[in-house]
Amino acid sequence: MDNTKSLIIEIPFTEKMVKSAKTKAKKMGSIRNSILKGKGNFAGFLGEEAVAAYIGAEIISFEEGDAKYGHDILKNEKRIEVKTKRRTVEPKLFYDVSVAATSRHQADKSGLDLYIFASIQFDGDIPKRIWIIGQKDRDQYFEEARFIKRGETEGDNGFRAHVDMYNLITTDLNGLDDSLLS
Known about the structure:
Elements: E1 9-11, H1 15-28, H2 41-55, E2 58-59, E3 73-75, E4 78-87, E5 96-100, E6 114-123, E7 126-137, H3 138-144, E8 146-148, E9 165-169
Parallel strand pairs: 4-6
Antiparallel strand pairs: 1-7, 2-3, 3-4, 5-9, 6-7, 8-9
């Protein structure tokens, strides 16, 4: 993997993606193991839509069957989970990415191979910009991430964790792998 590839790549999104994400979010409602108890569904689905379109992947997160619980998208036989954070500002290299401790079950061998982290800048409820922050192999993520208990401060930004989570700083991620872009 080329680790010199830049992190934080702005990617396009369309009104069609926004409408699809809103429809899925409304239908999904509150979901188990959600950091925001379902309030982040729209951002999560929009992140999936934009990342899948950018890398040419198949979205499976809203399909029937058990596979949808282990990962969101498929590309070149890689099972990928897209983790999206809502933001009011452009992401920075010193920001953290997170995986809820309750989502750790996805790290089992049948669940997923890779995390891709995304951020969406919102103005109120309106998405303005989307970025791929980076990627990390499932096993490497949990080997390198730091555990943060619910209520503890995430970093030096003052944000308090809503749930127990595993965090990495953006600079500990890998740039988007070229094999995902073919």
